[in-house]
Design a protein that fits this description.
This protein is mainly alpha-helical and 394 residues long. It folds into 2 domains: 12-227 and 347-370, Citrate Synthase, domain 1 (Orthogonal Bundle), CATH 1.10.580; 233-340, Cytochrome P450-Terp, domain 2 (Cytochrome p450-Terp, domain 2), CATH 1.10.230.10. 59% of the residues lie in helices and 3% in strands. A hairpin with a 2-residue loop joins strand 2 and strand 3. The longest helix is centred in the middle third of the chain and has 28 residues, at 123-150. The two termini are 20 Å apart. The structure holds acetyl coenzyme *A and oxaloacetate ion (OAA). Oxaloacetate ion binds next to loops. It comes from Stylonychia lemnae. One of its GO terms (molecular function) is acyltransferase activity, acyl groups converted into alkyl on transfer. One of its GO terms (cellular component) is mitochondrial matrix.
């Protein structure tokens, strides 16, 4: 359905060349103008959530109060924590994350209000309550998923009321580098929303249109984000670079990259982190990551390889005419940055994407309910009917 406009989606809009805008503001502007955490160089996700919900930037006082409000909402029940800790160690973190969200669902304010029979015009208020709860809780949920999978038995800090979401998440996972706090702020800000048609946001919208509550909708969205053509491409992209490095070591040429890419294409596999359904130029989110690396990360082999792939791969993909966009997307670069700070469990990367995407998806659901958008139910057709239509020429 590319190019078919069929959704009303308030919080963001994607331009094929200029990339994403949140409430009409591009990422350059947001990174400059949205409030930053004290001592940090990047905007906080709390400020961006406020922007997505309301259309305006919060001032410092508002963002501080909002941070406190979200902190109060962030607590996970013992049942949820125990459930996550008892899931099989080998289960993919995205599956654990989605199960964790579902286990919070009995607390849905919307579901309770609906069953009490509140009028339709109040749906948005209960959706807002759930949406804020979800955006707050996913930070702790992600940390519990991470620690119960990779940090078993380790004593780690709990949430800290004085820290913003990103710093809290990084600290709860056992990292203390302040530059990593900043990377996480940038990461959570740039992945937050990508208009309404992405698999994740569209799924949430569709599920919520049946008045399934925001927990059900967000968990469903996460199952879509977990696909390799969508959010899982971030783990696949790092694996692509690491596999290349395993084969060629630290000395390689442009030709090695080109041959490696052609080999993958000849096996009908995709080059993860390249291509896009809408973008037709390099994803500005990828550029923001590269800029962060330039300022904060000493060059290493993987960063050199990432930059060199950016030079070589689009030229190769461009020769394959069916590929409409040969340029890198955000997933091409994020893993290299996370790995630099010691987050070396690729399977976890899409959970971070999911935490960020909660900000956009949840803000949008509030507006969908405020607009009282109807149940989503497009028409479908059988192959026989399609053939009939084609042969009758109608
Ligand atoms: C955050 C995000 O979700 S960003 C996207 C993350 N996903 C990836 O990076 C995975 C690699 N990329 C892709 O698979 C695709 O480019 C997608 C899924 C992102 C977009 O898909 P589409 O809109 O169908 O892209 P497009 O119209 O260019 O596809 C046409 C053909 O080119 C192929 N193609 C597109 N990108 C690539 C790629 N990176 N590597 C190999 N083949 C590709 C498609 O698989 C399709 O092949 P087919 O006709 O044999 O099925
Ligand atoms: O726009 C899309 O389809 C995929 C994407 O980049 C995102 O969801 O961030």
């Amino acid at each position: 359905m590319r190019g078919l406009t069929g959704l009303l989606y308030e919080t963001s809009k994607l331009h094929p060349v200029n990339g994403i805008t949140y409430r009409g503001k591009d990422l350059n502007e947001i990174i400059k103008q949205s409030p930053r955490a004290s001592g940090g160089t990047q905007p906080t996700p709390e400020g961006v959530l406020w922007l997505l919900l309301t259309g305006v930037y919060p001032n410092q006082e508002e963002v501080k109060t909002f941070q406190e409000e979200l902190y109060q909402r962030s607590h996970l029940s013992d049942e949820t924590e125990t459930l996550i800790r008892n899931l099989p160690e080998k289960m993919h973190p995205m599956t654990k994350f989605s199960i964790g969200v579902m286990s919070c669902q009995p607390d849905s304010n919307f579901a309770k209000a609906y069953h009490k029979g509140v009028p339709k015009k109040e749906y948005w208020e209960h959706t807002l309550e759930d949406s804020l709860d979800i955006c707050a809780k996913v930070i702790q949920l992600a940390a519990v998923v991470y620690n119960s999978t990779y940090n078993r038995g380790k004593q780690l800090p709990g949430p800290d009321q004085d820290l913003d979401m990103s710093a809290n998440l990084v600290q709860m996972m056992g990292f203390s580098d302040k530059s990593f706090y900043d990377l996480m702020r940038l990461y959570l800000v740039i992945h937050a929303d990508h208009e309404g048609g992405t698999v994740s946001s569209h799924t949430a919208h569709c599920v919520n249109s049946a008045l399934s509550d925001p927990y059900l909708a967000y968990s469903a969205a996460m199952n879509g984000l977990a696909g390799p053509l969508h959010g899982l491409a971030n783990q696949e992209s790092l694996n692509f670079l690491l596999d290349f490095e395993k084969r060629f070591g630290h000395i390689w040429t442009d030709n090695d990259i080109a041959n490696y890419v052609e080999e993958i294409l000849s096996e009908s596999r995709v080059i993860p982190g390249y291509g896009h359904a809408v973008l037709r130029k390099t994803d500005p989110r990828f550029i923001h990551l590269l800029e962060f690396a330039e300022k904060n990360i000493e060059e290493n082999n993987l960063i050199r390889l990432l930059n060199q792939c950016y030079t070589v791969i689009p030229k190769i993909l461009d020769k394959h005419k069916k590929i409409k966009n040969p340029w890198p997307n955000v997933d091409a670069g994020s893993g290299v940055m996370l790995l630099h700070y010691g987050l070396n469990h690729q399977d976890f990367y899409t959970v971070l994407f999911g935490v960020s995407r909660a900000l956009g998806i949840m803000s949008s659901l509030v507006w969908s309910r405020a607009f009282n958008l109807p149940i989503e139910r497009p028409n479908s057709i059988t192959l026989d009917l399609l053939l009939e239509k084609v042969s009758s020429g109608k």
